[in-house]
Amino acid sequence: MRIGVTGPDLIFGKGSVYNHTIFTIKLLQNRHTFILFPDPALFKKFRSNKEYVMEQIEKLESIGINVANGFKDLLDQGAKYKDIIEKYSREYSGTVDLIYSFEYLDNYIIPEDFIFELSRKMKTKFAVSLQGMGDFDLHISNYIRSTLMFSKTPKIPLYRFYHYFNRKILLYKLISSNNLAFIAVINHSYQRNLNLNFPNIEVMNPGNGIQNSLSENITEQREFYKEKKIIYFARLTYSKGLFDILKIMKYIISKDGNVKLIVAGNFEHTEEKNIFFNYLKKYGLQGNVIYKGFLPDKDLYREIATSKVMIYPSHSDSFSIAVSQALALRTPVVVYDIAGLSEYKDMRAVRFVNEFDYESMAVESMKILNMDDVTSLFDYSIDRFLNERTWEKVAEQYDIMFRKYTQK
């Protein structure tokens, strides 16, 4: 079977969705032929970094991802958006069984219709996986409430309102398309955020693999002594709880001034970084909050393993590998009760509190900090949960879906 791939960007891409796509294709390359159709909206960036792009193309082809014929010519010719789609469709019309996007999410100011247009031109059905699309609750009342809670800078509400209407439009266009074969979602609680009305929705279980994301020696690091400290690591941005952690720590320090918080990760935006350190100073937390920046896996795992609890006040998740990493290192986690983290429900080592309830997150964290032995919160079910989430199982589900909807 020949599968055309339109997303995510596998040339400049990185992160969890990129890994999701790469691992899946590598495991299925002997069953299907994958052809990458680079997004025409990114060609300006491709042309500005041509040498790097060609190096990445070679790497992709070495793991079984073929890049559309004529891609290099299209770069050299300076072809425009519609010309690129025309070239793809002329070359591959009638030869591709399904066009697939492993991440249907448009981040451009004016949304383009690449997968729709390519599908129409090639007269081929398309399908999508929703990963980042439903990481926020898109019900209007809840969305407005959370937006007001986020308002540390005027840019955040403006971005979020654009974000809301853009995603609503994209979802409407998606389920209204006659060429849509199916939608795959990677979390059984995804409907809680999106409320999709479409007959062919495939809920993946597991929706992500995590074993490849855990170091081979991670179990050895479980033996480190647990210090009375808290770990928070993520992409450092408001949607991952960057500003929430300071309010949570302010409450904790008011009860116990000896607690330390380790913050690890890269800031996504300079403005958010400045706000974070300004509030750190305003709340008088400089002596209790230690910013480590980005840490290599070995150093990060050591910080997690020696922490007694992880706080993860994320507002935006489809499936958190960070929580899995903490659990693998026998570090309990306190999280917000959002749809993307529902996979961890019913685990004694994961405590859920209402979103934006800083005090409750602080209280639950302190309960764990004051425990003599946090390993009592872990049992065989957590190891079974971690061991079941393999990329082989993820890839097998894709194989079944591809064959089901192309009847091959």
Helix content: 40-55%
pLDDT averaged over residues: 89
- Identify low-pLDDT runs: none
What order do the SSEs take from the amino end to the carboxyl end, as H and E?
EHEHHEHHEHEHHEHEEHEHEHEHEEHHH
Number of helices: 16
Fraction in beta strands = 15-25%
Q: Give me the side-by-side strand order of the main sheet.
A: 3-2-1-4-5-6-7
Strand element count:
13
Q: What does the radius of gyration come to?
A: 22 Å
Describe the biggest sheet? 7 strands, parallel
Q: Give the terminus-to-terminus CA distance.
A: 8 Å
Global shape: globular
Question: Which secondary-structure class do the elements indicate?
Answer: alpha/beta
